[in-house]
Amino acid sequence: MKPGTPWLLGLDLGGTRLKALSITPDGCEITRITAPTSGDDWKSNVKSCVNRLIRSHGTPAAIGVAAPGLAALDQRAIAHMSGRLPGLEGLDWQQFLEFGKPVPVLNDAHAALLGEAWLGAAKGLKNVALLTLGTGVGGAILADGRLFRGHIGRAGHLGHISIHSDGPPDIVHTPGSLEDAVGNHTLPTRSGGKFHCTADLVAAAKSGDASATAIWQTTIRDLAAGIASLINILDPEAIVIGGGIAEAGDDLFQPLARELDRVEWRPANHRVPILPATLAHWAGATGAAKYPNSEL
User: Fold this and answer.
1) Mean pLDDT of the chain
2) CATH topology (fold) of 8-110+282-293
3) The pTM of the whole model exceeds 0.85
4) DSSP E strand stretches across 44-199
């Protein structure tokens, strides 16, 4: 990068590591670096990463932060996030980073969708929903070209829709949620302790394990039911699916397409495309970098 070239900094703060991305305003990536966040010194690790990039590139034109939890209405901090990353709640990122401009903060799934809308699978689309399938199920909504936040910033928690009304309550008290039906965190319970990650479940199903096949088929049915419900509510141009479970590739997307053939409402034979996310683990950092200078 030539000295003086404007650049943006996106920080994606997770429970185990920080992903820091430097990128030009037109979307040319410069540098990716990571740092651990699992210890009590996560704040110092974040500052070290930022200072390292500033020493290398100069002062960024803008900084954005993606983090788990609900962003404050003024977008200066995460307002609600308990149980992880002590000190994150209420942390004013502009003050913390001693930056001369506001440092907007947004939910990590919201940031991931903005990244996919800027440079990834949702580029050029105006009405899109994102599902991130991993330990849990995250989500975000782009409505008429703008990130839909809702009244208190809670919009987009798509994993907490109910697909089994008589199911046990999930972490936010939703009965029989999509997150509990397909997330990795419940797989040991769903499989009677036999499987602990979806990759192992899919591998066993492909090898002919009957119990693994049955569990995976149930997972696909539940996911399709959730997606069909979201399609009816949002009428999106596409649904983007990312996260670790999406790395199953055709083993996920092909049976999911067949199940949606059965359950999706398709007026005039209109099928909503189901698209794999393309930015992988860097979607959140990409969206965070874009956010300060976006209209989204």
Assistant:
1) 94
2) Nucleotidyltransferase; domain 5 (3.30.420)
3) yes
4) 62-67, 70-71, 78-80, 105-107, 128-133, 137-143, 146-147
